[in-house]
Amino acid sequence: MDKIEGSILRSPADVRGFADFDGPLYYAPTGFIDHADDPNTLPLAGSRRGFSALEIIRRRDGGGAESMILPLLALEGWVQNSGRVDEINDVLNRLTTKRADFARLDMASCHVMGIVNVTPDSFSDGGDYNTTDQAIARARDLAAQGASILDIGGESTRPGAETVSEADEVARVVPVIRALAEDGHCVSIDTRHAGVMEAAIEAGAAIINDVTGLEGDERSMEVAAASGKPVILMHMQGEPGTMQENPQYDCAVLDVYDYLLDRIESCERAGISRDRICVDPGIGFGKSLSHNLELLSRLAIFHGLGCPILLGTSRKSFIGKIDPAASPKERLGGSIASAINGWRHGVQMIRVHDVHETVQSISVTTATSLV
């Protein structure tokens, strides 16, 4: 694979140079350590994992960004020089505080969300579970394999996908959601349509998972707020049908961060409190390989939003760009590798097709980190 050039350059500037900068700064935890009780680390979102440094990032005139690594041991001096005392205190509070339970799930742990596509055209499993009985059986199997959340979708959002009517989407997902909710499972509805959200919630869905960040339907924000349910806000550039046609960013990591912050603030104004919000950087949704890899390498920056993080990389095309011979169902290795990368960055939820293998890999990685 050719070398990937990112848009964030490591700055030759010294610490003082960044301290004198009067524009907005972004803070990404790095230098991860398995034991947060190390005296030179801080806990990552209240978990046992810790971080020992911050990557401080600023935008560059003309595009892109530059960054520097600041060990926590040097942070106090930098803060005094920069005059950003209140800002850093707020940032560290968001980066280190344990998240509130999300749909009654403890966010100190990493949860696996199992994907159930009740569709004929999803990119890797379209048609595999296209009937109500097949989808219910598949979801129950994923729960038995260790999925904490069952994500039910009735419309494919793969690149180039066509839209379906709300009536068809409701007919696909509601019987599945109702059966699983009656079983006592935690169910999320994967939809960008307000009418589907309403029907799914009535059927027992506990979470709204919207790839448009509640922007795809003018009623979505109102429906989500009135429901009282937690929501997952994802970043997507463009529409599913055309989103992979030459996506462009000034700096993918910072642009996605700013978008999600704006959506969180819009939700708060609409009556959806931050403790009801989870963010998803939207890997593969309007992003090139380099954009995806930049986001995966700096996932921890999104802890600065003060919300749980959902990561969805399972079987996605960026893995196929790294290993072109692998079909979607042959991307298990890359899916697990990116899931473990998410675990190392402290993400609280990972959305996957292959639940058993992902749960096992996280369990083994967690166990070895405790020794």
From TrEMBL:
One Gene Ontology CC term in the entry: cytosol
Family matches, as InterPro entries: DHP_synth-like, DHP_synth_dom, Dihydropteroate_synth-like_sf, Pterin-binding_dom
Transmembrane regions listed in the UniProt entry: none
Keyword set includes Magnesium: yes
GO biological process, one term: tetrahydrofolate biosynthetic process
Gene3D superfamilies on file: Dihydropteroate synthase-like
GO molecular function, one term: metal ion binding
Coiled coil regions in record: none
SUPFAM superfamilies tied to this protein: Dihydropteroate synthetase-like (SSF51717)
Pathway of action: Cofactor biosynthesis; tetrahydrofolate biosynthesis; 7,8-dihydrofolate from 2-amino-4-hydroxy-6-hydroxymethyl-7,8-dihydropteridine diphosphate and 4-aminobenzoate: step 1/2
Keywords: Folate biosynthesis, Magnesium, Metal-binding, Transferase
Superkingdom of source: Bacteria
Pfam families named among the record's database cross-references: Pterin_bind
Keyword Metal-binding listed: yes
Family note: Belongs to the DHPS family.
NCBIfam families, per the entry: DHPS
PANTHER family cross-referenced by the UniProt entry: FOLATE SYNTHESIS PROTEINS, FOLIC ACID SYNTHESIS PROTEIN FOL1
Name the UniProt record assigns to this protein: Dihydropteroate synthase
Organism: Thalassospira xiamenensis
Taxonomic lineage from the root: Bacteria, Pseudomonadati, Pseudomonadota, Alphaproteobacteria, Rhodospirillales
